[in-house]
Task: inverse folding
């Protein structure tokens, strides 16, 4: 019915490895990409610099950062300074889980998409994360899409909002391979939950461990700079 | 199975007439109310003072205001200074519609509810507004509820999140009558889209017109102070 050529998409960009890959996928599919990041009171604020670097390097049309202070509700090691980031694997849902974060981020992406007359939203969730984060599974994405089309004026019209999660079923190694084939410079990205202000990584948190393992399994050079 | 006695609920409070009534309904049902407001860059910032006054007067446990700058995405007369608030009735969806606003607000309420171990969320949407705002209809509330239970760790457990919209099918006159019977002091509330910093109302915008008409139809004294 329609081609993605010259269509607008809102792409959630965190500055990390997954969302950089998603942006490359969306661009490769012909979308004009409007990238969206959040200054939500996170510890790893150097990801905001990374979001901008990545957005520019991958040719976004506009990059915006929305300020939303999730420290007000707290409840996560990422938004509450009183809770430490774990440096080894833990049981159950990690304390780095930010309650309803993807729901909040997708909601704001939906609002911006409606303003832009865009109907496509891209997010870098994948099933590896689902082991701990419920808002990374296919059923969640699908339920969000249904809700989005009832929530908006645009969704009421002929064209429906679509939430794309192209990494959903990929391993970290496959993601790194895909991004590399699309020209992503992972040296621009920051994944660490407690990165230094220069964007150097701890190498110990969950996010660092998954990233490191991904490059190793893919047989690719890990460009990350570690401080620990 | 469970009683609302001593259960926690997150109640969205805007400082206006509807949400004050919802807070009174939730308290009357025995909930411990945690009220949530948003400093989202709105024109009518005196509603933030009203939110606090209303929350206190109706005995909330905690009142929080989350900062989220929706001016970054714009697209509404309420969040974009370049778009004027209409002073007479317009065709179609009003320009005061803020794209995805209720989705964003409910998402943050969901996050806080999860932090508080609360499963009940109250919102003051009603079908009168649905004529213009898609995120005020029953199908939207129901789809949000489904999504919320897939989005969260808490929703995955035995207890499910519920989104209560007790005003859904009420007229403005019925809402005013209900609130009055529950002891709401509507003199504390601000509904106007372009209220003065002292909380005085224009009397001309959609929100003022609906409110004025509600008091008139209910045969109750309108305590609103108008500046125009």
Result:
């Amino acid at each position: 019915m329609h081609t993605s050529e010259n269509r607008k998409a809102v792409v959630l960009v965190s500055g990390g490895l997954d969302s950089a890959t998603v942006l490359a996928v969306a661009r490769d599919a012909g979308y004009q990409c409007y990238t969206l990041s959040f200054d939500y009171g996170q510890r790893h604020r150097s990801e905001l610099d990374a979001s901008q670097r990545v957005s520019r390097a991958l040719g976004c049309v506009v990059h915006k950062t929305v300020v939303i202070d999730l420290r007000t509700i707290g409840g996560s090691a990422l938004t509450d300074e009183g809770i430490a980031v774990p440096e080894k694997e833990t049981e159950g849902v990690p304390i780095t889980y930010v309650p309803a974060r993807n729901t909040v981020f997708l909601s704001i992406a939906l609002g911006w998409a409606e303003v832009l007359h865009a109907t496509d939203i891209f997010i870098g969730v994948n099933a590896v994360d689902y082991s701990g984060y419920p808002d990374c599974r296919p059923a969640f994405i699908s339920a969000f899409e249904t809700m989005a089309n009832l929530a908006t004026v645009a969704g009421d019209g002929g064209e429906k909002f679509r939430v794309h999660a192209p990494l959903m079923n990929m391993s970290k190694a496959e993601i790194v391979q895909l991004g590399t084939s699309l020209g992503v410079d992972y040296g621009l990205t920051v994944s660490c939950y407690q990165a230094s202000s220069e964007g150097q990584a701890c190498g110990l948190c969950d996010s660092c461990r998954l990233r490191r393992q991904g490059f190793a399994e893919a047989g690719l050079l890990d460009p990350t700079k570690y401080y620990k």
User: Anything to note?
Assistant: Residues 8-218 of chain A form a domain with the Rossmann fold fold (CATH 3.40.50.620). Chain A has a mean pLDDT of 88. The radius of gyration of chain A is 17 Å.
